[in-house]
Amino acid sequence: MWATLRGAGMGALPLFLLWLALCGTATAAGSVAELVAETPTAAPVGDDVRLAQQLARHAGQPLVINFWASWCEPCRDEMPALARLPEKLAGTGLVVLTVAVADREADAALFMQRARLALPVLHDRDQRLSRLWGARLLPYTVVLDRQHRIVARAQGVIEWEDNAVLERLRSLLK
Question: What architecture is the 2-172 domain classified under in CATH?
Fold first, then answer.
């Protein structure tokens, strides 16, 4: 991770602070995030054409959007279970989108290839999209209903294959 980000022109101290801010505190050992339901609100799109295209492509389908980075170990750990969500929730039409934050495209692609994951990845190297969505720590997940309104959020790792989590998602997507 350090070499990757240093190659992107980041010094050791800013690099460490970035890692700590984005990944370190949200995923303390043994902690598991919880999907927190909220009053449905419109999903922010801003001026990101790629996100707007994905939302249009999946109109009428619920979405889980996960903000992650290839250098974030907890993010990598939860990604395979996240990729299996549409299968686990068959019949809901659920789509999982991912946003690689402060990451090099090649590193994110290499992780997906090695992990044999076929999730769409939007790249947010400048962190504009993650800031717009409130992703301050990674991993960060937002659940959108069929009208693409935010209905829940989670900051940190989620046990995506836990039955209680799956039932919670089903209830949010109704």
Answer: 3-Layer(aba) Sandwich (3.40)
